[in-house]
Amino acid sequence: EILKASGENFVVGGANRWDYDAFVNWDFFPSVEYPILVYFKENQTPEEKWNEGPGQFDKSNTGQLHFFPAIANVKQLKEQFQLRGCAKVED
To answer: Which residue from 56, 60, 51 is spatially nearest to 24, judged by alpha carbons?
Structure first.
């Protein structure tokens, strides 16, 4: 299957594409059982953009934060994050 362009990121600009090894964390809020938002953090976005949008609230400043509505099969999304080796900070 061919990936199509998703357009510009409306917060920091640039393409909405990140390498899996650039992911430094991901999760589901409030939980994977009752998801409303999907969260991930990546460090591929240029560092000077990390404090834009929700990143301004990130005290660790280790990447750009992203949130999107959990309107997909989140159990499958979780499996794909794990399968593709996306880093996850455990509590």
So the answer is: 60
* pLDDT tens per residue across span 73-89: 999 999 999 999 999 99
Q: What is the largest CA-CA distance in the chain?
A: 38
> Residue 87 corresponds to which tokens in the numbers above?
């880093």
The dihedral sign for the CA sequence 72, 36, 25, 12: positive
3-state secondary structure of 73: coil
Residue with tokens 């362009």: 5
**49 near 8, Cβ under 8 Å?**
no
Residues 8, 5: Cα–Cα separation, whole Å: 9
